[in-house]
Amino acid sequence: MIKVDPKVGNISNVRCLNVSYNSLDNSTDVANVINSIPSLQLIDVSNNNLSHAPNISGRSDFSLHIANNEFLNCDGIKEQMLENIKFVHPDQTLCRKFVTITQWSKEDTVSLNLSSIASTIMIHKQCPPKCSCSESRIVTEKGENNQNQVSNIAVAVNCSYRHLTKMPESLPTYTTTLDVSHNNITSLNLNGLKPDSNYDKLNYINANYNEIKTLQTLEGSEFLKAFEYLSLKGNQISKIPHFLEKAVTGTPSGKGQILLSDNKFECNCDTALHMKPMLVALEKHIVDFENIYCNNMEIKIIDLVNEKVCTINEINYIYYIIVAEVLLLLLLVGKVSYDYWVFKHVGYLPWPASKMPRLPCDCVLEN
């Protein structure tokens, strides 16, 4: 097994050292070499068998290329970054992290790129004012060309009880969870955000007990295309827009969940004819649909009876319109037929028809 000879430290004025492809497996030997060459600024230990990054201390702006060490452990890398150690090609450098998968109560190993670890250092710097931010979970995604699976560290942002009047302008990188409950937010407008606002990975929003009046501002947002959870209990929402049905069922997982109880739904005939069937159709997604009440009457929306909230005219007005149109059409056909019969038998048109402007088809009738 090849090891780095500490005697290499006798070489003076060495700034870059390449010991890649040497089957190195002892990070302590590498650290000894680095510490014994004061002039060294970069070392390439890529494509070896290192399981840990070398412990480098007291070296500001030192660069370390450690990619393609298959068994490299993530432990200690964040501490090295805090020591201003620069990792070459962090997007392409993977390390292994042991995590416990709660639902199966077993340990597993995931691969993290060093950029995701570096982003956790910036969490507190990127955290919105008045909010708290923390690492929440490991998110595994497919890599380039749907090949290798790469994991990232997801961030949770808690802005509850902060007297906010609008959504945070930006979030830490790779934020997936946002809690803005118990504030004074009036709109969930996610369409006018800046490109660098880091809302692109967000799939969980808790906006309970705010002053949100409409869901129209969510239409066409990137959040609705891949969300998993949206809780809007205790707001002032009065209608459920039709686009929400397509958005909920059209998510990649098909498991998007929404909570809408304790809002200000004004119930009328339109609610019974349209909103009630929508709630029933989306019962697997609107998880509290059985607890959504009318604001203007003591009844659940799903218990509304058409005959009790709709007048006869409201229920059947469309049928009256159809009947009226059919009668008008029959009247018109009858009038034209009568005028034609009179013209053929008497030789002139009745007075109303004779006063009407001539049409191109009149010559056909005259012949």
Features:
367 residues; alpha/beta; Leucine-rich repeat, LRR (right-handed beta-alpha superhelix); 6-stranded mixed beta sheet; 11 helices; 12 strands
Describe the protein's topology.
Blueprint: E1 16-18, H1 27-36, E2 42-44, E3 63-65, H2 77-82, E4 86-87, E5 94-101, E6 106-113, H3 114-121, H4 123-126, E7 132-142, E8 149-158, E9 175-179, E10 204-206, H5 223-226, E11 229-231, H6 243-249, E12 257-259, H7 269-281, H8 306-309, H9 312-346, H10 351-354, H11 362-366
Parallel strand pairs: 1-2, 2-3, 3-4, 8-9, 9-10, 10-11, 11-12
Antiparallel strand pairs: 5-6, 7-8
What does this protein look like?
The chain has 367 residues and is of the alpha/beta class. The protein has 3 domains: 1-93; 94-310, Leucine-rich repeat, LRR (right-handed beta-alpha superhelix), CATH 3.80.10; 314-366, no CATH class. 27% of the residues lie in helices and 17% in strands. It contains 11 helices and 12 strands. It has helices at 27-36, 77-82, 114-121, 123-126, 223-226, 243-249, 269-281, 306-309, 312-346, 351-354, 362-366, and strands at 16-18, 42-44, 63-65, 86-87, 94-101, 106-113, 132-142, 149-158, 175-179, 204-206, 229-231, 257-259. A 6-stranded mixed β-sheet has the order 7-8-9-10-11-12, with helices on one face. A 4-stranded parallel β-sheet has the order 1-2-3-4, with no helix packed on it. The chain has a two-stranded antiparallel ribbon with strand order 5-6. Helix 5 links the parallel strand 10 and strand 11. The longest helix is centred in the C-terminal third of the chain and has 35 residues, at 312-346. The protein is elongated, with a radius of gyration of 35 Å. The N and C termini lie far apart (111 Å). The chain crosses the membrane at residues 317-334. Residues 126-177 form the LRRNT domain.
